[in-house]
Task: structure prediction
Amino acid sequence: MRRVTKSEYFKGNYEEVHEMEVAVKRKFFFWRKEEVVKNQFRKEFGFLRQKVDDNKFLKLDEVLQQVIIGESSITAIVASAGSGKTTLMRRIARKTLGHSLTNTGATASPSQLKYKLIHYIEIKGMRDKRSMKPSKFLFGGLFQNKIDEDNAYQWLIEHQSEAVLYFDGLDQATWKINRDGDENINPYSKAKAATIMYNILSRNLLADTKIVISSREFQVSDLPAEARPTDIITLSGLNLDDAKKLFVFLIHQHGDEAWARIETMSPRLINLVSIPVFLVLTAVIMAKNPNEPPPKTVTGLYKIIVSTLSSVKNIRKADAIAGIINKLKAMAYLGMKEGRVTFSENDLKRFRLSKDEVQDLMMKVPGNNLLSCNLLDGSFIFFFCHQSLQEFLAAGFVVEMTYTKFISFNSKHLHKERWSVVRRFVCGIIYDETPDNLHEVSTRSLKKRFLAGSIHSQLEEKFKIKDNYIRMELYTAIYESGDDALMKQISYIDVSGISLSRDKAHIVGSLAERSVSLECWSLADCSIDDEILAIITGCLKERTQVGLGKKHLS
Result:
């Protein structure tokens, strides 16, 4: 947003500043035995859906009331990449402080405060290298000495109901909570980070403390039953009118014309901009290249963003940017393999990178973890400006592998949930044969043939185990490829139980329209409103034989 000058302000001649909020829905209750009441819940692929109005969107203050005053002891904020999970978490945490809520939600004096501790923890800064006490897990790095750390934890033990703990980015953890559960520990035992987190989520530790976590869908659905959140809030993105207002505001001049070009030339992109991070990226490239056609996929969007880095006037090391990006591909891939999104100075040295070379592509934070940002420490950690950028660069490393290594990687990693966004980018890069200055893909035709067989075999496997969230990711990867042959082979589309965003609705409708062998599809319990239905039917206007009966939308 541009700065408003004093003269403009006093003349009243300044731009209206738009503050938009992503649509938020209260969605699922995970299964717990004591919550099963006849005629109130039904089991559905590991979830129990409460009979509430799924199409009711919540305002930020309503989310705050539900999280802080509601009955749920653990709330999860769940959404796909770039949807604004961290932003929402931070805003709720700040409002928890600012509102000074009492038990009734009214403003309180310090002695009346319901919550005296609001603690925000970024999981991506945590490592699981050695055992530690829960006090270290929660407060490590916040204090100069261990005594204060232990005192803070002891206060939390004794005042559990007066605290709220926010854990941001469960899917970014370098450790994984065992799906079959873990051992129970006492409040002062040493354990690995995954075990401590399991005990907090399963309520063996800090049972009376409010817990709020954010994550992509796969990590939450993969938790053991006893550690699953009691309430889930999903982010559905910006509505189209708000997205357009922000887009036009960001571009300023010619914003309406740029929006109109996207509407006519890139229908996927017009639905994708409801996701905040992609709205900003789209505005950037449309402002820089107003006469170029807009990209049709997320892969195309990131290709343009990264390709134009060397031409940005104020970027440093522009003459060496191609070599720097290639090194970052390898480092991003290493991070994905090790399940981490933060990197140390030693990681930079390993890939022959300097702090100066990456300063325009990565964020630099002082300290050796995200809990302790000590300016005097002399050390730094680094992370990409957004996790999806790391995933795009990692995909670039994967597609440039030799054919033998590509096959090996595919069988070991590509179809694991954590790699789902990388898989989208791999499909987008391999199937797009337009020359670019970012990727050198050898044996492309062999990789395309192998990838097609691998994805369709995964679809068949997922139909057997009825995992609709993972299947939706496979549909997204197929769409990202833009390959007609891949889309024509789809015979089943089943996304029942998934809250469809504008982008997901466009993908599902487009695949149904382009498939020549579609035998069955289900959109049951997808919380379809008029806007989502219009997107799907708009994709199907040329396929009159594909119907949307009540059994599909129930």
The chain has 24 helices and 15 strands. The longest helix spans residues 444-465.
